[in-house]
Amino acid sequence: MDQQAIDTAIERRASSNRADIRFIRLKEVIAICGKSRSSVYDAIKKGAFPRPVKLQGRSAAWIKSEVEQWAVQCIRASRRDCDS
């Protein structure tokens, strides 16, 4: 495979990863995680919840896949506790 083909493959992979990114606002974060607003921000301070991305000025949003991944980790941890 020549260098141009490699570069093209890398660009395609990068663009497909960017297409998967979806920003969500706090309301949807709360709907996914079931936490209150203050609990979300407390967990962020403790490093136990994904940090939001600053978009512009005071505007911020979360990456949906990161919040969903956090939820999956909570489920796995909960299931391990039940198996003990």
Percent helix, as a range, is 55-70%
Please list the strands of the largest sheet in the order they lie side by side: 1-3-2
Judged by helices, strands and strand pairing, the structural class is alpha+beta
Strand content: 5-15%
Protein name: Transcriptional regulator, AlpA family
Organism: Massilia yuzhufengensis
How would you summarize this macromolecular structure in one to three sentences?
The protein has helices at 3-19, 26-33, 37-45, 64-83; strands at 23-24, 53-56, 59-63.
What does this structure look like?
The protein is α+β, with helices and mostly antiparallel strands and 84 residues long. It has one domain (23-83). It has four helices and three strands. The protein has helices at residues 3-19, 26-33, 37-45, 64-83; strands spanning 23-24, 53-56, 59-63. The protein has a three-stranded antiparallel sheet. The chain is flat, with a radius of gyration of 17 Å. It starts with a helix and ends with a helix. The relative contact order is 0.13. The model has no long low-confidence stretch (mean pLDDT 86).
